[in-house]
Amino acid sequence: MLYTARSTKNQRKPGAANRERGAGVQKRGDPVRAGLISACDRLLRLHPPSKITSGMLLKEANVARATLYHHFDSASALVEKTLLESFSTHVDANIAALQQLVDQSKTCEEFAEGLRVVTRVSQSSDRRSTRFARTRLIAYSEISPALRKTLAKEQERLTVAIEEIVMAAKKKGWVKKSIKPRPAAVLIQAYTLGKIVDDVAETKMPEEDWNALIDEVVLGGMMTRD
């Protein structure tokens, strides 16, 4: 329903931690920093995260090496920041959309209809790149302890937010009392990311067949009929 061992050449540069902490007040550097992230995002659409080098980033962003290391500890740090920023952007959009839906719906049927719309948007082929980006993020976190730790916090933020939305719907009598919020939140995210299985399949299933199954299994299984 929802809309992922460094080499010596990428070692931490002196004073990088202070630069990172002060990024919010370095207004003049922000456009350059954003440009580096945009350049990295373009490269991530063409290459695995582990294959992106500082040279590739410098060429794509058209900046000097000193500029890169002024804003980031290393090329790896920029890759990780780009992956996380993309994920966080979608997290915020997902939370806002679902929260608005539960807040503004007046009836169970209105809430259910809104969820059907969200399902069709998030499961569409247009979201294929989003699913791949999240998968890349999860895979890359396996070789980066720092990224894994940061991703865990961001993932927890998303799961807790969905838990709270499920609880709010339960209080309104729209979700069955037997449904536990945490497993429900994980399930919602699991079948969304799981659509990537069909994204890479030779024979694609009709999108509406998939959406209808979600309606029947998830909405039919979790929601009341009031």
Topology diagram in text:
Blueprint: H1 16-21, H2 30-44, H3 54-61, H4 65-71, H5 75-104, H6 108-122, H7 128-141, H8 145-171, H9 181-194, H10 196-199, H11 207-222
Name given to the CATH architecture of the largest domain: Orthogonal Bundle
What shape does the CA trace take? elongated
Write down the CATH class of the largest domain.
Mainly Alpha
What is the third-level CATH name, the topology of the largest domain? Tetracycline Repressor, domain 2
TL;DR of this structure?
The radius of gyration is 20 Å and the shape is elongated. It contains eleven helices and no strands. It is 69% helix and 0% strand.
Brief descriptors of the model:
2 domains, single chain, 226 residues, Arc Repressor Mutant, subunit A, elongated
Written account of the structure:
The chain is mainly alpha-helical and 226 residues long. It folds into two domains: 10-75, Arc Repressor Mutant, subunit A (Orthogonal Bundle); 79-222, Tetracycline Repressor, domain 2, CATH 1.10.357.10. Helices cover 69% and strands 0% of the residues. The protein is built from eleven helices and no strands. The chain has helices at 16-21, 30-44, 54-61, 65-71, 75-104, 108-122, 128-141, 145-171, 181-194, 196-199, 207-222. α2 crosses α3 (54-61). The relative contact order is 0.13.
